[in-house]
Design brief:
The complex is a heterodimer of chains A (about 475) and B (about 230). In chain A, strands 1, 2, 3, 4, 5, 6, 7, 8, 9, 10 and 11 form an eleven-stranded mixed beta sheet that branches. Chain A is built from twelve helices and eleven strands. Chain A starts with 18 loop residues before the first helix and ends in a 7-residue tail after the last helix. Among the domains of chain A are: about 200 residues, Jelly Rolls, CATH 2.60.120.1440; about 90 residues, Serine Threonine Protein Phosphatase 5, Tetratricopeptide repeat. With about 230 residues, chain B is an all-alpha fold. Chain B is built from nine helices and no strands. The chains are: A alpha+beta (about 475), B mainly alpha (about 230). Chains A and B meet through helix 1, helix 8 and helix 10 of A and helix 3, helix 4, helix 6, helix 7 and helix 9 of B.
């Protein structure tokens, strides 16, 4: 059970200013007041005139800048806000396909472009002004992401996720492997569901990982499905634990690592093409014996997850227990299958605060799986780790979650805790070597950290020979 | 509130000003900012204001020392970080000391100072928003409350603080400001109302609305008394 926050919360916070800061600020105040008193009136006139001139220059600059806001390819940049669109301004479909050996190139509103080939099938999971998340279910993508664009691109491909800000690269997924090749810039590749840190690839490098889920056969026709919410028709592939190894894709391959034991992210394998985002939630944890099934079935009525219902009102009113009781299994499954990130966070909160930690973990893992670039993702991963370690007695999964939180860049306030709890999780899972390695990283990062004693307890430091 | 004689030497009062505790260890160990002037030892706020209006520099410094932590707290907790705290503190007290003659009720000094501080914070918010929209913001991400936690906070409490920051981001700005002043910084409702430039009833309503959202997501006890908010 988590500790409640006190009122006022300030009791837990460090002082916002120290004695030195107080004195420094006072000196600054005195200096500014003295300067204001001694400043000649004429200089104030000059300052006012200067300010007016600056405003005029800024206005001129704005007028001059506006026509330059169009990129050489004719794509307007000023209006590149909100969801990503095609270059012609159309909303992107939720599913984009090509048939057989066909090719299709999408030019996008931010100046980026994507070429689909080899029967590519791509689902758009999230498209906002700051992120664009897709799932490559099969086939090949050649991607050019405009450098310094406003969005972080993430391409989920079952065995790994590829994150990029601006570069040229390709991703190919077939029955046997996922291959990433970088031609320009940098991309980060993160093995799915594995506690390993991401792999950073530069220009000319490539990376491959075996694909242990068979991918669906390419569809027989090119169908850009409408983006509107439709019943989820995908079914989760079997999930489980396995051990494998990364292998270089070819002689240029550079990234190599041992995949640690952990659950695999499910791979969509539905046989219908249209539909809402299709990445299903991960399988339930071993300790989970609660009501929600591990493989949510498609809701029998149209997406209850997107409707405001009583449970959300109850949760908003502070009645988490009532909210959880009011949630029907169909609603829960609907949210897990097709809910928004916000709905998944609310579902997790209702579960967590009403004493259903396994359901909370499942909701958050679904969020991590479907919205890995969402702002809530790092904290969600950390919370999953806490739930597995403190409530569900599953330190192995806790370790995976804490590692995920770290790789997602959990905020500075929790980074030290995540590193320390990772040590504890490894140690409690019986992986002494991993615990020692994690402890060494902690000690190196936080030599005088406040969790040092806990880290030393779980993984005593060995004296140098 | 009793006023000092118009031209009484301020030094008589200033000798009574206790040096504020300077413990900067765990937050629990340090003295809280006094809740209201009536609980202070030494000269009252009204007396300090009167002396400062007469140009006594020591009185100005006493005002600063008495209220600087409250202003710094408002800046750090609302701005999400300590990077702009110095600037907000300086901007606030330059205005406070320059405009002391405009203060209608010297006994309500703390609320007035907090209102100026909140105004400065909101200006910085708007500036950040503009710079972010233009892609010119170089200040990094806002800090969560977890990053401001003292060493005494447990891992669980830090996680809840991070969650609290996320939840507060969803609350309308004026309700968030009122809630933070009340339940993060622990200011009395009267000062919160003054800082938010609204009536006591309105600020209670705002705090209650934010509190419902917060308690839907974060473990916090109901406020004692309940009727207060």
């Amino acid at each position: 059970m988590s500790e409640p926050l006190p009122r006022p919360v300030d009791r837990l916070l460090a002082p916002p200013i120290d004695e030195l800061g107080e004195q420094r600020a006072w000196n600054g105040i005195e200096a500014r007041r003295l300067a204001a008193r001694s400043r000649p009136r004429a200089s104030r006139v000059w300052l006012a005139g200067g300010a007016l001139a600056a405003v005029a220059c800024a206005a001129l600059l704005l007028v001059w800048w506006r026509p330059l806001g169009t990129s050489p390819d004719g794509v307007a940049r000023h209006h590149d806000v909100g969801p990503l669109r095609t270059a012609s301004g159309d909303v992107l479909p939720s599913l984009v396909l090509v048939r057989g050996t066909g090719l299709r190139t999408l030019s996008l509103s931010d100046g980026s472009s994507v070429r689909l080939s080899k029967g590519a099938r791509v689902r758009v999971l999230e498209s906002t002004g700051t992120s664009f998340v897709t799932v490559l279910e099969a086939g090949r993508l050649d991607v050019h992401v405009r450098p310094r664009g406003p969005r972080r691109w993430v391409i989920e491909c079952g065995a790994a996720s590829v994150a990029v800000v601006g570069t040229r690269f390709s991703v190919e997924r077939d029955r046997e492997r996922v291959t990433v090749e970088v031609r320009e810039g940098l991309v980060d590749v993160t093995p799915a569901g594995v506690g390993e840190a991401h792999v950073r690839l530069g220009a000319g490098e490539s990376w491959a990982i075996p694909e242990d889920h068979p991918v669906a056969d390419p569809p027989s026709e090119v169908v850009p499905a409408p983006a509107a919410a439709e019943p989820d028709t995908t079914s989760p592939a079997a999930s489980g634990s396995r051990r494998g190894s990364l292998s270089p894709s070819d002689e240029r391959g550079v990234a190599r690592g041992e995949r640690s034991e952990g659950s695999r992210r499910s791979s969509p394998s539905g046989d219908r093409d249209e539909g809402a985002p299709g990445t299903p939630p991960e399988a339930s944890p071993a300790a989970d014996t609660s009501s929600a099934p591990s493989s949510p079935t498609p809701p029998s009525r149209p997406t209850p997850a997107v409707e405001e219902s009583d449970w959300q009102s109850l949760l908003a009113g502070g009645d988490a227990r009532g909210a959880w009781t009011a949630l029907t299994p169909a609603e829960r499954n609907g949210i897990l299958a097709s809910g928004t990130a916000e709905q998944l966070v609310r579902l997790a909160d209702a579960a967590r605060l009403s004493g259903h930690p396994s359901d909370a973990a499942r909701a958050l893992e679904t969020l991590l799986s479907r919205f890995p670039a969402h702002a809530s993702a790092p904290l969600a991963a950390f919370t999953v780790g806490r739930l597995y370690l403190d409530r569900l007695g599953n330190p192995s999964r806790a370790a995976v979650a804490f590692q995920r939180a770290l790789s997602l860049g959990v905020g500075s306030g929790l980074r030290e805790d995540a590193m320390a709890r990772l040590v504890e999780a490894h140690a409690r899972a019986g992986r002494a070597a991993d615990a020692s390695a994690a402890a060494a990283r902690y000690r190196q990062t936080f030599p005088a950290g406040r969790r040092r004693a806990i880290v030393d307890r779980w993984a005593p430091s060995t004296p140098a020979p | 509130m009793p006023q000092s004689e118009p031209h009484a030497p301020m030094t008589r009062h200033l000798r009574l000003v206790p040096t504020p505790p300077r413990a900067f260890g765990p937050a629990e160990a340090r003295a809280k900012v006094p809740a209201s002037p009536s609980t202070q030892e030494g000269p009252t706020d009204a007396e300090l204001v009167a002396a400062a209006r007469r140009g006594e520099r020591a009185a100005e410094e006493a005002i600063y020392k008495r209220h600087v932590r409250a202003v710094a707290g408002v800046a750090a907790r609302l701005l999400g970080g300590r990077q702009d705290v110095d600037d907000v503190v300086q901007d606030t007290f330059v205005d406070v000391l320059d405009e002391l003659d405009d203060l209608q009720d010297p006994a309500a000094l703390r609320g007035w100072i907090l209102r100026i501080a909140v105004h400065k914070v909101h200006r910085r918010f708007r500036r950040r928003k503009l710079l972010r929209a233009l892609g010119l913001w170089r200040g990094g991400d806002d800090e969560t409350l977890a990053a401001q936690a003292s060493n005494a906070a447990t891992s669980e409490q830090r996680a809840e603080l991070a969650l609290l920051t996320q939840v507060l981001d969803r609350v309308p700005a004026r309700e968030r400001t009122a809630w933070v002043l009340r339940h993060v910084e622990g200011h009395p409702l009267e000062d919160v109302a003054a800082a938010c430039d609204c009536s006591l009833a309105t600020v209670k309503r705002w705090i209650a609305a934010a509190d419902v959202v917060v308690r839907a997501h974060v473990r916090m006890p109901a406020e004692e008394g309940g009727a207060d908010v």
